[in-house]
Each structure stands twice: as structure tokens, then as C-alpha cells.
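ESCALATION

Customer reports they have been waiting on this structure for their group meeting. Please prioritize. Original submission:
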Amino acid sequence: MLSNKYVRTIMLSRVLLQLGIWVRNFAILLYVTDITQNDPYYVSLISVVEYAPIFIFAIIGGTFADRWRPKRTMMLSDLLSACSVFVVLLVVMSGSWKALLLATLASAILSQFSQPSAMKLFKQHVPEEQLQSVMAMFQSMTAFFMVIGPVFGTFIYGHYGIEVSLIVMGGMFIGSSLILGLLPPDTSDEAGRSRSGFLAEMKSGLDYVRFNRVLRNLGAAFAFAGLAAGLTQPLGIFIIIENLGKDKEFLQWIMMANGGAMLLGGMFIMSKGKTMKPQTMLSLGLLVSAAGTTGVGWSHHTALTLALQTVSGFFYPCIHIGINTLLLRNTESAFMGRVGGIMGPMFMGFMVIGMSIAGYLAGILSLSVVFSISGALFLIAMLILLPMVRAKEAEQQPSLQGRL
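Update from on-call: job pushed to the front of the queue and completed.
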């Protein structure tokens, strides 16, 4: 896979982006908590400016990604992110720390244009039989940075402060853009341009998903899986305190076990999972998540909880790898950006809904019941995909260009 210039170059670019993003996430979080004395309003506002662009700009960015040249789009997005960071640095040095939120907002917005362009290049330049392994490689990289990213970001901020953290962040974005410059030039076919207007192209993307049975099923599964993930994400700390009777600091060991298992799971799929159909892989990941989430909610034994988190983490890459592989295989190149722009908010939107009601449900029910509800939602997502598991893969690629 690394012999493919597109995979190798984008992979190296994403390594620098991940480093920059984790420095951004933790340096800004720690700085804001320090300067506001842990004000929950501003701490929560960091998450808002990080996730809000997914809802507002995902479909817009995806539509433009289908119209623009992918290499140029990714390079400009990274360069503009770096420019925004250095502008924010100047403002912060003058004493206005609230501008830090603009750095997060700008890079989050621009990523909605860059990410679909990378998927489009994979669709065009990676052989179909290698797509699943490529997605596994990128999932492994993401899991790796989930383990070391917080440590790296905390180290940079703790030792050098917010100004140096911003310089490192901007430097990483510039480095990513320069590396992307090594990609072969965009071709006219990669531009994805159309004579239709912007709104017409956005509507055609929505119609494309609506008429594609595989994408419809994936969208429904996305919604249930996102709601399931959102219900448990804010409650992990209470599992540690109430169910296990541990101090809140013990949460880091649970997260490390889960993140390490995710890394191993992604590497295993990359090397051994080539023969498994992506819809089978996705269903397996959802089934294990259903069982693991329910078990964690009812477990009062530390060893059992660690084991369940480790097993769930090992199979969790099956979900993301299966989803991305199915999207790549069942989406025509001209619609790659718009499909990603529709599917991403589907998951994130329901996850935010789950996060917003998790505390209320835990208050009127119990942790065990909420985690059981989450497990049931994962199971429903898996059942939605059963027809796809039984279907022949060759029957899942209808060309819809003629309908639209």
C-alpha cells in the first residue's frame, strides 16, 4: 500500500495534521481552563466550535470538494489553517485569549473541505481490493494518536506555553501542505466540475443518497450508532467512580486500554482482514460494541471492565473501516464529497443528541440502564445492516447517474 504515492503522501500529511490537531485540542483546552479558572461555559464552547462546523459546513465542503481539484483543495485548506493560527497568535500576544476559539473554528471549517478531497483521491487512485486495508491503516494511525496525542499536546503546552503551542500547530499545518505538494498534478477528470449550479449539485447529492439502498441503510445505521455512542461518552467517568469505586484519575487507564486495543485491532485488520466483506466487518463491530457497552454498564469489577473495554476497542475499528470502505465502494467518484458531507453529520448529529440527554437519563434511570439502552441501539444498527451482509457485493453498486 505504501508503494502507492497517493497513500504514502496523504498518510504522511495526516501524521503532521494529527500532531497539529492534538496540540491544538489540549493546548487550547488547558490554557482556557487556566485563564478562566475552569469556567464550564468556555470549556464547553471549545467543543461547540470544534463540532458545529461539521453540521454547517460538511455538505457545503463536500459539494465544493466535488467541484474543485482535490490536491489544490487540500493544500489550500492546510495553508489557510496555518495562516489563521498565526493571526490568532498575534492577537493572543496582544492579550485577547478568546481569539483561540477562532483557531479551532477555522481549522474545523477548513477540514470539511480537505477530508472529502482525500477520500476522492483514494477512490480514484487506490485499487478497490486495497481500499479496506488503506482504511485500516488510517484507522490505526488515528488510534495511535488517540493514545499519544494527549501526551504530546500536554507536554508542548506544559513546557513551552500557548504561544509555542500555536507556532507548533501552524508549523504542522504548513508541513502538511508542503507534503501534499508532492502529489501528482490534478487532472481534468479530478476536478469534478459540473455545469450545474451549487444548489443543484447539493440537491443531486441528497438524491444520490436517497436512491442508493446501501447508502440509505448506512445512513440509518449511522444515526443509531451515533445516538448509542453519545449516550455513553459523557458517563465514562461515573462508571469509574460509582461502579468501580475508583478515583476519577483511573479513567486514563481505561482510555489507554481502549485506545491501545483500537490500534492493535486496526493493525490486525490491515494485515489479516482483507478477505472479510466490509459489511460483515461493520456488523461484527456493532455487535461487539452492543455486548461490550451493556457489559460495562453492569460490571462492578475492575478486571472485567478493563477486559470489556479492551475487547470493544479491538473490534471498534471494524465500524469505521467498514463504513469508510462501503462508502468508497458504493459511491461514484463525482459524488464522493457530497456523500461524505451527508453521512458525517448524520453520525455526529445523533451523537450530540445522545450526549445532551445522557446526564438526564442517568439521573432518572441508572448507569446500567443507560448503557443497556446504548447497547440496544448498537444492536439495532447491526440489524439494519443484515440485508447488506446477506446480499452479494456485486449487487450493491448500482450506477445512479442516469436517474439524477
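Sent to customer with the following note: The domain at 199-391 is CATH 1.20.1250.20 (Growth Hormone; Chain: A;).
Escalation resolved.
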